[in-house]
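Sample intake sheet
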Amino acid sequence: MDHPGADALERLALVLAGAPAAVRRALAAVGPDPSPFDRLASEGFAAVVRAARPLLRAEVPAVLERVGAAGWRWAVPGTPGYPAGVSALSDPPLGLFVRGTVPEAPGAAVVGSRRATPYGRQVGRLLGEALAAAGVPVVSGMARGVDAAAHEGALAGGGPTVAVWGAGPDRVYPPEHGPLAEAIVDGGGALVTEFPPGTPPRPHHFPRRNRIIVGLARAVVVVEARARSGALNTARQALDEGREVWAVPGSILSELSVGPNALIRMGARPLLVPDELIRELGRRPAVPEGAGADPPSPVLDAIPSGRSLPPDAIAAAAGLPVGEVLTALLTLELEGRVERLPDGSYARR
């Protein structure tokens, strides 16, 4: 990797020293400066500078070597690879570890519950695919549930997607999303984190992570969320940063609909079809290539959208023997048209 300038090296040293938000805001207020150390010392942060200076020689070169060997690079405000939208945040990161390519155009963030229902995962995937097919980058946090579904949908739609982590670049979280992370990079997107190598995914990291998701997006869509959740935290940060918030309405009987329904009541735009958001972002909705080409399936037709059913209930609805339905479900699962849930039921994808 190219050798970063002195500004970038000093910012990385500050990150390794654990510089607080006050330091980030101080540097953002004065704009680009040839020496963050000198500027911060004059602003009353001499103690932080004293902690960071020794790391410039002892730790920074080793960190850059490790992340570079794994395909990551370190980007700071004002340099290529550091998104303009993130730089404009009220609390921009001192720098970002980036693997892959962050799209220049701002995207749409799709966020929601880690414990999403089949409906939530379906909607997340649908939004990701429709946005990507229309040329809108999809941003999310690569968490289980809605986030992962949105990334997978974006990859299926042929567009780039960006995953923002709440851990260091050497800590894929959740661990089972390693293949998804590789697919995101291979698909022309990017993995992004402000946390240095070795940082575990601690709960308080994710609210910090969420502001970067907001910085990469023009609009934030909340699919499913409980009354108190990370997705709602992202929505609040989006409003604070002047981004538009959309919410997908849900059943009043589901606790995962409390969050988006409350957002709509407070003024968020209800998202009823992806095309509304796509047009609002100045793009034209795309019809996915091969749409409607999947062969008809009475077994698939027997599974209601947004719900999951066990095989015997599907067989009863389709009027077919259970054995025949199990064979058909296996085929549909291999084709990616249904998914088998942990409880043994099946839902549409």
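Comment: The CA atoms of residues 117 and 338 lie 14 Å apart. Residues 288-292 have pLDDT under 50 and may be disordered.
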